[in-house]
Amino acid sequence: MNDLIIGAVLLFTGNAAVFAQPTHDTHRYGTCQQFDVPINASAEGAIFDLTHIDDNISARSWAIIEDTRTTLRGADRIIKNITISGTFNIHVQLCQPHSSNGAGAIQIATHGGHYDSRYWDSKYQPEQHSYVEAALKAGYPILTYDRLGAGKSDLPDAYSGVQAGLELEILKELTLMARNRSIGSGSTASQSDSPRIIHVGHSFGSFLTSAFIATYPELSDAAVITGYVATEYLALAGYTPWAAQYAKAAQRPFDRTPGYIVNQKSGIQNIFFAGDPDTAFTKELLDYGDEIKQPVPIGELASGYKLVGLPGLNYTGLLHFMLAEFDTFVCAGDCNGVTNATALKKSYPKAAALEVDIQPNTGHALPLHNNATAGFEVSFDFLKRNGF
What we know:
Blueprint (H helix, E strand, L loop, with lengths): L8 E5 L2 E5 L2 E5 L2 E19 L7 H12 L10 E20 L7 E6 L15 H4 L1 H7 L4 E4 L18 H16 L3 E2 L11 E7 L1 H12 L6 E5 L17 E3 L13 E4 L1 H8 L10 H9 L4 E2 H6 L14 E7 L3 H4 L9 H4 L8 E7 L12 H14 L3
Parallel strand pairs: 6-7, 6-9, 9-10, 10-14, 14-15
Antiparallel strand pairs: 1-2, 1-8, 3-4, 4-5, 5-7, 11-12, 12-13
Helix pairs in contact: 4-5, 6-7
């Protein structure tokens, strides 16, 4: 796996080879490079009946309308079906551990809404809160990326340019690049030498990851789902607790077009931080969670229903669900007893192994709580016990 990040970064998109100039980042347990990957992708999308957001009043109105019980949802709010296609620059961080665990696997981690890939790689006390550092310490290469519409990736129209189906296809292309070793030094390994793929997700990134293993089961060997399980409690908290603002007019403005919203700090706490306030997280962790927040395009949110609850009937890999005990977004504040492995096996009957664990005294942003490393270790233990 060392050839993944040695030398120049050569990216293959279709028949064209593109050289990117990587930036290097020092981690205690590995070496990382950041670069942009041009990805050609196409997917079915829609024009949805959505509030036009171009100031803070319309942002708050959007949340209230979304939480109104008679508001149309899902496919019922489609005005017109469209195809979304293009070449999109996706910002990637690819890390190689100093010491490999010999599992022959690479992790691909997909962040959720309101954040970018920095969610996985905390610069605040990284030994305690960076999933990337923990993965490198455990010997796993890991690829993280800014999803379309977030961070340093392209920022298309918030209504019709960033939608769930397109993001699923982008994840597919990144996965194929990793499996074919065409992201890294440009080496041409044989198919038998392809690394196994461990997909990791959080929140909307877990929407994508779970939909990915249901749609493309042959492209994933293991999956770790955090901050998501499809039950009747999912998103029951609604949108008004987000305390959303129009990104361009926010207290800390972002250069975004209409339709991008961002949580105020109170909204970040409401959704992402929970548990005993004296022991679950610190003021500094909440400050950091607010510092790295990102705007969200509302077209992505409107299209998310296409990803939720898809059964992975042909998925034969490993599957680990890690839930935060006091997750407001996923479990209406208490994930104890909301699901179990027996129930989930009905949706993943061929999974080689399936387990569900709960990280105690933790809210939706699992890495940004005081016992984050314990949760990381539970997932890594599951992978190691099952040959990864």
